[in-house]
Specification:
The complex is a heterodimer. By secondary structure, chain A is mainly α. In chain A, about 80% of the residues lie in helices and about 0% in strands. Chain B is flat, with a radius of gyration of 21 Å. The chains are: A mainly alpha, B mainly alpha.
Chain lengths: ~220, ~220
Amino acid sequence: MFQTAMTFNDLMFLLKGAGLTLAVTGVSVAAGTVMGIVFGVIRVQIGPWWAIPLTFLLDIFRSVPLLIQLVLANAFQAIAQFGWPPFTTSCVVLSLYTAAYCTEIVRGGIDAVPVTTRRAARSLGLSWVQDMRYIVAPLATRVSLPAWIGLTLGVMKDSALVLWLGLNELLKSSQILITRLQEPLFILIVCGLIYFLMSFPIARFGGYLERRWSPHD
Amino acid sequence: MFNYTFHWNQAMRSLPRMLDGALVTLEVALLSMALGLAFALLLMLMRMSGYRALTALAATWVEVARNTPALFQIYMAHFGLGSFGIHLSPYAALLAGITFNNAGYLAENFRGALKAIPETQTRAARSLGMTQLQAFRMIVAPQMLRVAFLPMTNQMVWAILMTSLGVTVGMNMDLAGVTQELNARSFRTFEFFAMAAVIFYLITKAVTLAARLIAWRLFRY
């Protein structure tokens, strides 16, 4: 009933693209989260006024299209003669992009911990580090994790844009197959299905956590 | 420092063309937002209708829009629909893709906002003699808008940022498209894209500010 020239090898080709998508996402989210936590803590610690330069800088990554950030970064690394391969450039840009969002999530999480709780911890003799480690971190994680999962999935989807720098990630692989097999609809559906399968279960899990951990019930 | 001479003059001379492109970008974003709002309301009604087929269709739309990249959705509109004999121009494909995306996210926002209004309010309004429609329009909708307004502004900013994806399907009228065309002619990639970044930044900030003013005007007690 339905005929296609797509072979098992072509599917493997797509899955290899999906692997690259996951690799870019993994590296960027890991680096971005670490930076986000550091920036978030700094931002809360020094207060909104002193954090204005940091906030402004990070806000740029959220107000300029990712595609343009990628092109700019690629042009810049060429100008500065860093000699980065596209993979590195993509990861650097996506990490900063992730960090910009993650900072807000971390800040929101820390702000959600009641000041009284933290004062109580400090008056029990806990140091700042201990307070952060044993009081703030667990409570803030509860608030932030669903948003962080959403961010991770967002970065996974946005990583499709690195095809502009010539990386053969999932969407680019599907384009290559389309050029070869001339079956745009079928290949795009397969490609979309792979994205969906990578994203949907985790999104559902995030939604479940959000309901399960909601402070109101 | 760098073995490269920046040619900002050349980029500055092209500023009028880029600003024209920015207008197209804004136009696409606003159109996609308006259409997206309409479709989101439709999706919400479909979900509430109680018909299994309609509910399933709406749920599929929302989940696909939220779980696949926006770029994929634009590709689908541009390359995928060709299999049905529908050949969209880059402009139409971009608009269709972003509208699809917007509708999915906005529908989910509306659903969350609707949940935030206690059902008891509707019942109270009904027992005061309002019809179902009146209760929705005069009691639920205004409060819903208050909850959904901030996510809506975020979505508007997203829509503006997403318009830059049009360049991947050959759009050459919007800001990203114009920039890419200028870049292809002059190879002054950094200068042109830096200008585009600044313009995008200013647009998003202006939109956020406008939204804040509207919110302040509409929602103060």
